[in-house]
Design brief:
Layout: H1 4-7, E1 10-18, E2 23-31, E3 43-46, H2 49-54, H3 58-68, E4 75-79, H4 86-90, H5 97-115, E5 125-130, H6 132-143, E6 150-154, H7 160-167, E7 176-182, E8 188-190, E9 193-195, H8 197-210, E10 214-220, H9 226-241
Parallel strand pairs: 3-4, 3-5, 5-6, 6-7, 7-10
Antiparallel strand pairs: 1-2, 2-4, 8-9
Helix pairs in contact: 3-9, 7-8
InterPro entries: AB_hydrolase_fold, Esterase-like, Mycobacterial_A85_antigen
Protein name: Enterochelin esterase
């Protein structure tokens, strides 16, 4: 049974008006136990924000890590997405990719930093994403080394266009990634085709390491589902926050 202390959490639902996307974008903000606005906190930015909270149980994991495992308190920002345009925003070949990545750096981060006491150094920001959410997190970090250096990639969807972009980079030594992919993800069908996610992640890992990135990499029993990723989140958070 889950300890009731883990379920008592503060989650604020915010909304920004994005000029770059031409619409409102919802955010979920987790504030840690003992939150004090005169302090400052590391911050985890999650793509697929609603899923990270509902299916990844990231707020419950965070409470447990902070209350029981000695991890210093941190803030979580879940950026929600309309699943009907998710590929268009998260994939580099999508027609909303440039607008979304610009919104992330030029609107979402400034909004969070105006309203919450998050730390502003690249090493204090973590990007987290599953599947294409892992992909867009990597692209954000490659495009904005002054903002991001740490990425949690849960079964990243590293399709050929992303691998090609990665191959053109020369120096990615500023990046540190925690990558995990499921051994049952070798024949997974998405809205753009059927892929071997194990091979895609192996290729991405090799390209990253060849360019100096630090990669903590795992292949484990698991499918392309939140049932797998949910259990991987605590170790991924500990890796960057301990």
């Amino acid at each position: 049974m889950t300890d009731s202390r883990y379920l008592k959490r503060t989650i604020i639902k915010d909304e920004i008006d994005s000029l770059l996307l031409g619409e409102k974008r919802s955010l979920r903000i987790y504030l840690p136990p003992g939150y004090n606005e005169i302090l400052s906190y590391p911050v985890v930015y999650c793509q697929d924000g609603e899923e990270f909270f509902n299916f990844g149980r990231i707020a419950t994991h965070a409470n447990q890590l902070i209350l029981d495992d000695g991890i210093d308190p941190f803030i979580i920002v879940g950026v929600e997405v309309n699943t009907s345009v998710r590929t268009e925003e998260y994939a580099p070949f999508g027609n909303r990719f440039e607008a979304y990545t610009s919104c992330f750096t030029e609107e979402i981060i400034p909004y969070v930093e105006r309203n919450y006491p998050v730390r502003r150094e690249a090493r204090e920001r973590i990007l987290a994403g599953d599947s294409l959410g892992g992909t867009v997190s990597l692209h954000l970090a490659m495009k904005n080394p002054e903002l991001f250096s740490k990425i949690i990639s849960l079964s990243g969807a590293y399709y050929e266009p992303s691998l090609d972009i990665l191959a053109k980079e020369n120096d990615l030594s500023h990046l540190s990634l925690y990558m995990v992919v499921g051994l049952q993800e070798d024949n997974y069908t998405t809205d753009t085709g059927t892929y071997n996610f194990i091979e895609l992640n192996r290729k991405a890992r090799a390209l990253l390491e060849e360019r100096g990135a630090k990669v903590k990499y795992f292949e484990k029993d698991g499918k392309h589902l939140w049932g797998f990723w949910q259990n991987e989140l605590p170790d991924a958070l500990i890796y960057f926050l301990s």
